[in-house]
Each structure stands twice: as structure tokens, then as C-alpha cells.
Amino acid sequence: NEWSVGNVGTGTNALVIAAGFPLGPKSHLVVYTVNNDGRQDLGTAASVPIVDWSGSVTGVAFADLDLDAGDLGGDVAWTEAHVLTNVLNYAVYLADDALGSFRRFVADGIAVGTTAAAVPPDTALGSVTHAVVYVRSPLEEQTTPAALAVSDAGPTAAPLAFVDLDLDLGDLGGAVTWAVATDALLVQHAAVYLGESAAGAAASQVGGTFPVGTTTLALPADTPKASYTHVLVYLTSSLATQSTPTALAISDTVASVASIAFVDEDLDLGELGGDATWDPPADLSQVTHYQAFFSVGLAGLVSKIGSTVQVG
Questions:
Q1: Which of 80, 237, 267, 276 has the highest CB neighbour count under 10 A?
Q2: Helix, strand, coil shares of the chain as percentages rounded to 5?
């Protein structure tokens, strides 16, 4: 069987075969000389065996190092073909399927010998399902790319917990605890902040960074609540820190007694004695006991009276 490729006149010794010509069972390229009496026989015409080169890459890999759900970031990597005949460069895209439909540009003109291209952090996932790598020859870009299904990493620090053990209005203190899934292998460390919204507005870091495996921060007593509304935990990979933290609304524990009363029943001048009474706080959930003191003014020296008094 023969399939015509084209005809050229004398004086021309080249023919461009359009890309995409199906190989099928074809094994040789045959060039006949032709005149008005006909063409050469197949047995005497010049021919050359067809070598169908494939420059497709293999082993496409991508680890999403952008830890925000719905965002991608990290390197698309691949292994070059063993034979690089006619490979000019590479192009990388994100696409809606393995065939490269609705592809989004990542990088092109990537030189032979380079085997990775960076997807910047905060790249929207949208309808993307695959990373695709195309090989380009001097003739054209290949039609069918090498493809890899992408997986969107979205680890969180949930469950995040904080109970305010500082009993003063406007002050915070206590343990902030969180958890990171054991399969969140891309997380390198975590950091705790106080912020003015769940999204991290005006966030201020508390303490340093914590390696994976550390899941507790002791927030010191008398930490000003100020205008903060949330405790926030941000996770960080080798590429970037999350844009969207795990957040927990702050509940400022307030436990002050009321209606303190004391009548001195010691009749000696310069000496005190009698019962001190008070009404308990409305919220006793974080109160373990009471301590009573005499003071010199409301901000002066204090002196403890007796032992602690149990709640109730």
C-alpha cells in the first residue's frame, strides 16, 4: 500500500510533510522520478526507512506547595526523553483535562536540559485538573502532551482551641492549641497570630514559628486583647505561607466579684477583724478559688489576708 505525500517539480529536492500525518502501517518514505511515460517502479525508486521519533517527556510530577485550598503553587517537573533528536524546547500549561483543553500558560521556550517550571503561588485552581508538558520541534508543538492530574493541597490547623484563663476584662492568657494532619507532609512550620478578623486583618504574631509536631503556644497572662477578635494559625511550606489562616473567635473571660462588703468587728484602734463577703462572678467556669488582700490605695501595696477561699 502507498499513501501519496505530494508532488514537486524538477529543480526542487525537498518536500515539507505537514505535521500530524498518521504513521499507521507505513514503514518507508519512497521518492519516485516521473515523466510523461510514467514513474519508476517501486523496486528501483529511492527509499529510506521511517524512524518515528518521540520526544515526549515522562514522569511529570507536581507537588502543590501553596497550602491554601483553591490555589496552586510549586514546580512542575519532568524527565526528558532519552533521545532528544529534533527537540527544540518545552512548554508547560495548566489545563482542564489530560489533552490540554482550555490550557493556562505557565512557561514556554524552556530550553532542553531544563526539567522544571514554576507555578507561582496563589495561582487559582478554578477548573484546572492537570499539568501538561508539550515538546516543541522546529516544525511544531506536539499535539498530545504528557499530563499529570494535580491535587490541591489545603491543610488546616483545625481543630484550633483557646480558652482565656486571664480573668481580667481586656486581657488574654492561656494555651493556644492546634492540630496539623499527619499526612500534611508539605507543611514545614506554623505561626500563631492575633487578628482583627477571621481573614487575618491587622494580624500580629505571637511568639515565633513552630515546627511540625509542636501544636501548643502559651499565650502569656496580661496579653492585651485590644481590638483583636480572632486567634489565627498560619501554616507555611517551602514555597509560601498560607493566605487564609485557620481562625477561632476570641472569647474574653471576665470573672470579677461584686458587692464586696467588710465591717470591722475588732474594736481595737489600728486592728481589723470581721467577715469579708462578696457576690461571685456571673461566669465561674474558669475560676478555681478566691484570694483576698488589703491594699494601700487601688494601685498600691497589697497584703494577703489568710489562705485562699474555695469557689462556692
A1: 237
A2: 0, 40, 60
For cell 532542553, what's the residue? 112
* Cβ–Cβ < 8 Å for 290, 304: no
Write down the residue that cell numbers 502569656 correspond to: 220
Cα gap 285→110, rounded to integer Å? 63
Q: At 206, is the secondary structure helix, strand, or coil?
A: strand
CB proximity list for 60: less than 8 A, separation 6 or greater:
76, 77, 78, 131, 132, 133, 146, 147, 148
- Residue pair 67/157 in contact by the 8 Å Cβ criterion: no
Name the pairing type of β-strands 230-236 and 189-195: antiparallel
DSSP letter, residue 298: S
Measure Cα distances from 104 to 36, 98, 257 in Å. Answer: 54, 13, 64
- In this prediction the pTM is 0.78
- Phi, psi at 219, each rounded to 5°: -80, 120
For every residue of 5-72, which 3-state class applies, written as one string? CCCCCCCCCCCCCCCCCCCCCCCEEEECCEECCEECCCCCCEEEECCCCCCCCEEEEECCCCCCCCEE
How far apart are alpha carbons 279 and 73 in whole angstroms?
58
Say whether 190 sits in a helix, a strand or coil: strand
Residue 262: half-sphere exposure toward Cβ, Cα within 13 Å: 11
